[in-house]
Amino acid sequence: AQTVTQSQPEMSVQEAETVTLSCTYDTSESNYYLFWYKQPPSRQMILVIRQEAYKQQNATENRFSVNFQKAAKSFSLKISDSQLGDTAMYFCALSNDMRFGAGTRLTVKP
Amino acid sequence: DGGITQSPKYLFRKEGQNVTLSCEQNLNHDAMYWYRQDPGQGLRLIYYSQIVNDFQKGDIAEGYSVSREKKESFPLTVTSAQKNPTAFYLCASSIRGVRRVEQFFGPGTRLTVL
To answer: Which residue on chain B is closest to A47 by alpha carbon?
Structure first.
């Protein structure tokens, strides 16, 4: 079985500060991709960042970056310089069987 | 503009009635998916289809049915056998067989059983 676990149901951060969301996963496959999706209050799912398991370099997209630890099966998302528009549910996902974590609700406070 | 459309946005159903949720995409994607979203449980896969006229059950297929007669369309029927159908339903699509490509999501349908 392949699973994705997000252990932080809710988090909050002050505007302009940095926050890290955690995700662990389990898979028997050697080639896979990991994704972080954002779901704002509009409920439209948006891709934030992706990481290929074969790449050692951590992916970065502007203020969003990941810490990918393949041996530990960990895939955390770091949001730098948090903005009010970052308030959303964040979901970690594993490509191979389209599984998503339960999500972390992030609130950015002014 | 290419994308995925779901209709209706809100749907109300009486107990014992079947209801069909629409999902259409013009992205030329082969694969399409249906997810159910409940508070605290993330997205759970109901059904997916990798190609026309073929589909597979996901983790929570009981009480649901689908069809894939056209590449662009993947409707979901919530039957009276589904015991707790009130939820938010998301449809998604992706390029088949390309794992690096993310899924693209529709805006969702909120189903409420009265």
So the answer is: B102
